[in-house]
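Researcher: Here's my situation. A collaborator sent me these components and asked whether they could plausibly form a single complex. I don't have experimental data yet, so a predicted model of the whole assembly would be a useful starting point for our discussion.
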Amino acid sequence: MNQQVPVITVRNLVKKFGSFVANDHLNFDVYQGEIFGFLGANGAGKTTAMKILCGLSSPTSGEAKVAGFDIYKETEKVKRNIGYMSQKFSLYEDLTVAENIRFFSGVYGISPSDRKEKQQKLLKDLGLESAKDSLIGSLPLGWKQKLAFSVAIFHDPKIVFLDEPTGGVDPITRRKFWDLIYEASDRGITVFVTTHYMDEAEYCNRVSIMNAGRIEALDTPENLKKQYSAKNMDEVFLKIARNTE
Amino acid sequence: MKQFIGFLKKEFLHIFRDPRTMMIIFLLPIVQLLLFGKVINTDIQNSRIAILYQSHDNTTREITSKLVSSGYFVLGEELMPGDDVEDVFRKGKVKMVVTFGPEFEKSLERDGKAEVQLLADASDPNTARILTNYASGIINDYVKKEKLQNLQLPNQINTEVRMLYNEGLKSVYMFVPGIMAMILMLISAMMTSISISKEKELGTMEVLLASPLKPIQIVLGKVTPYLLLSFINALTIILIGVFIFGVPIKGSFVFLMAESFLFIMMALSLGILISTIAPNQMVAMFISVLALMLPTILLSGFMFPIENMPLPLRIISHAMPPRWFIVIIKNIMLKGTGILFVWKETLILMFMTFVFIALSIKNFKIRLE
């Protein structure tokens, strides 16, 4: 992890829906190669912030740069340099594994020869070679999620945004999914992940905790536990939630 | 461009892998057309009638044989004076009873006048009206040609009736344009709205929007396959109409296809508009059926004449795109007119397309805002 190179910078980011303030002056940096956990209760505003950074929504005011590009003026370039996986895991169920890979490769302009090479490696790494021509709909949920993540980083983005990627799977599958996240991080891909599983927060390099549209805390899990003299992240989270009530 | 072709490939895979979509696109138009053309037929053929002779003579016999040989009627029963006419109707054996008055031939030759009574079963009013019209037409025709020539009647006005543009009064002439409007609405508007809202529902739309694809590319990619398929369908319907049902194309074929293309564009933009409102496939389908299919069938003048509707419905029918399309199609196919006579309808369809696209863009911006 390189502490010196920020890949996401956010300054005074505000997002309002009418009179409701979803994001209230957010300020944070995310560094290259780190796994950045974006925590908060439902409705705390984490998905909204993430959508702004992905170019799916535009902010009311404030500044933000993603992968070095301005999210207002250089949306195109931002989108070329990120990967995105939504909480409804996001491959086409009626297409096969290979067809999904081919489609998303095409979207990101990966050449067919590159694609074939990478696809082979990917399926081998995941142990899914036999499933190449199976419809996504016929695969178990754990496989689908692994594939969705692998497809999201297939074009080697600088940053991958994961919106509650492990919702609805068992702890073992979740753990395996995190192995993939670590691998991506080792390859230098910055991982920006929202979650409300506190055990997952422990896996992150740094976490920010949002409450009612504001970032209440931002540090490594160890420091946060010290700061709030808590045994685990669950306690940290509860203490922050109580303080701000 | 490569991106776009990749997108189209994916869309076609979606379509070809879904049996329901395939049925709607390829089977439904043909089944509908054959159903409306062959089964639901409002033309009269071989209706059973009964004849009640109060006088048996050459003229009444000849008229009877004229009626039967017309193809519209079949002689079901011969009644004698005193027979219970109502009883025959109640048994449902015949649709109409023709009664010849007493001394038919004699009074016709003596006074140039004779009496025939047509009793029709009006529990089905449309059929009753058509049957009596046909029958009196045949009888008058016969009497005029065969009998009255010998008599010198002063100052007679002969009315000659011709049904222009559809001499045989075939109902299929009406159904082909109607079904075309309906099917194109169904495939273009409904299928597009369902296919776009499906991406929303499954979360893949977010992934597409977060990708380098521009929203306009996504929409075009979703819409183009349905444009192609709708066009093929329009062609199929016209060909079936022409070669199986003998509907003529008196005007320009190219112009006909151009107008169909315009209507498809209109329906596609309506489909896009629906998908910007509907959060999922169910809602999209619901809106399509309620807001598109029913009005298309009921208010476009396809099944029920607009002139007979109460004022509020007549006003609403103006907002129904198929109404204008059906007018255009009928004009081109049956009357052979060109743009000079349908420019108003064409402009209305263009205007509607424009409005739907503008509204879609507005809705889309609000959602992204």
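Model: Some features of this prediction you could bring to your collaborator: The interface with chain A takes residues 2-3, 5-7, 9-10, 13-14, 17-18, 202-204, 206-213, 368-369 of chain B (CB under 8 Å). The radius of gyration of chain B is 28 Å.
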